[in-house]
Amino acid sequence: MTGELVLRTCGALVLALLLGAGGRWVARVARQPEVIGEITGGLIIGPVVLAVAGRSGLAAVFPHEALAVLKILGELGLVLFLVRVAQELRVAFASRAENSTGRTVGLIAGGAFVPAVAAGLAFAGYLVAQGDPALRGTAPTPAFVLVVVICLTTTAVPVLARILADRNLLGSAEGSLSMAAAVLNDAVNWPILAIGLGLASGRMSGALMALAVLGGGLVVAAGLSRVLSTGVVSGFCLRRPWIVAVLLAVLACAAAEVTDEFGLTTILGAFLVGLAVPPERTAGPWARVVGGMAKASSKLVPLFFVVAGVTVFTGPLGSLSWVTIVAALVLAVAGKLGGGYLGARLGGQPPAIARRIGVLLNTRGLTEIIVLQAGFAAGVLPPALYLTGLVMALATTALTGPLLGLLDRVDAVRRRKAPSAREDPA
Predict the structure, then answer these.
(1) What is the C-alpha to C-alpha distance for residues 274 and 242, in angstroms, rounded to an integer?
(2) Domain 82-303+316-413: which topology?
(3) Listed residue (217, 207, 290) closest to 258, CA to CA
(4) Cα–Cα distance for residue pair 399/396, rounded to 1 Å
(5) Is 189 buried (19+), middle (13-18) or exposed (0-12) by CB count in 10 A?
(6) Mean of the pLDDT values across residues 345-364?
(7) What UniProt keywords are attached to this protein's entry (predicted)?
(8) How far is CA 151 from the centre of its chain?
């Protein structure tokens, strides 16, 4: 690599990092999750530069070699993020086991899953019936349908946890129930995603191999978790958290490569390593290790979306229409928000809490983007449908805060009217 190319690569890296920081700042000002700003800023930079400076200008700002470096760093960020996602799922699941509400959680999880599956099937059926290769792609129908369904059933546990913390709802009924339901949903979604990706080869043996790799990975993760929970290892983590974080990151990257070799996605490998991390809530050696990895991932993940914005969304997207985007958005909201509300009501929750649970479960965030990326990388989702899913994920996540605020105002008005209603002699 020449000196000029090194400088241009460094310039592209600095620009991408600035975009991520700027996106986070805009999101905070708009009272939105920071990930929305990171993703949006990264995705629009490619089309913006293309519109202003043309293809030659885009190649000058983001040369091919620079994009290769950004892609590697961005994928490393995703690997680190997935370790954190899996660890947070374990923490949330452990918390649910300690504070089990049994039937209510099951009904809410089922309510948020079954209608969302129906919505996903309806959307997949619509795309197959359209027969547009720009939206349908060339993947086998079973793989395509399963991945589309998972795209509409995902709830982003990390973003949900952040929203609950920002609004002081972690200990509330709606907070604990929505988190527990989201964890159960995601626990079902990951194996289904593995099957869908395995079916992308067009052979049932691919799905069986995916299940075998996933099952073997879970066994290894459970054994590794026991080893990592020992006092000797935990004590070393407490003294050298950054060394352990680096070793864990290397292990996650290696596991990602192994799963990729078996025809799955690197996402599942990193996720399995995250499941091996002992669950700790806020303190302790492993919480410090995962916290350090989370800080690194927050800086690197935006690079991934810059690469997507330059490579995917500056090319032809076929007959992408707003009708398809609106259909995806409406079905996604109806399945998760409506299903979550219905499940909460069946579980005995009052309407006010049920509405909030539905809104919270409609949060998709970066976990949804990772599912979309898995389908896109496996060739199941074409670029136009990938973009449709990104718009849907960003919109549903951005809706969470305003909808919760609207519900707060509606409930406040009702509380003010309640005393006057009781005093009315009529």
Answers:
(1) 16
(2) Na+/H+ antiporter like fold (1.20.1530)
(3) 217
(4) 5
(5) buried
(6) 91
(7) Ion transport, Membrane, Transmembrane, Transmembrane helix, Transport
(8) 10
